[in-house]
Amino acid sequence: MRDKLLIPCIYLKYGKAVCGLGEEATKAFDMPDPVELGRLYGNQGADEVLIFDLSETDEEHDAAIGTIREIAEKAEVPVIGAGHIRRMEDVKKLLYAGCKRVVLNFSKPGNIELLVEVSKRF
Fold first, then answer.
1. What is the pLDDT of residues 16-55, one digit of tens each?
2. Angle between helices 88-96 and 58-74 (to 10 degrees)
3. What is the SS3 assignment for 16?
4. What is the DSSP letter of 28?
């Protein structure tokens, strides 16, 4: 059994891979195609890929779910979904898109209760 895992992160904003959170979210990554980036990470030895959805609206989130689905199909390693999770439906969408796991931010109000709710359902 391996002691350590390599899990690169793709920050997803407006269908593109961006450099990070906050101001960095406005800067395109060197390879802005997140599907190709996920495939590359999988082929280069990543154990999993974390996709952090930086969507601000539900419409953007729904579009991001489609991109996450494509990444999960092409990456050939497990995909972890995070970001823009506000209710159980968001967790369900990420799991159905192919994510093996979903990350909840416990600094957000209500996410501990959400964890209890989704744990019973999934």
1. 998 877 776 677 777 789 999 999 999 999 999 999 999 9
2. 30
3. strand
4. B
Report how far apart, in Å, the C-alpha atoms of 26 and of each of 17, 18, 81 are.
10, 7, 20
- 76, part of any domain: yes
What three-state secondary structure class fits 89?
Answer: helix
Structural domain for 115, as ranges = 10-121
How is residue 95 written in tokens?
């799991």
Q: Return the SS3 of 8.
A: coil
Per-residue DSSP letter, 29:
P
For residue 69, give the CATH number of its domain.
3.20.20.70
Let me know if residue 44 belongs to a domain. yes
Residue 90 covered by a domain: yes
Interatomic CA distance for residues 42 and 24, integer angstroms: 24
User: In terms of Cα–Cα distance, which of 96, 48, 41, 91 is closest to 69?
Assistant: 96
Task: Identify the three-state secondary structure at position 76.
Answer: coil
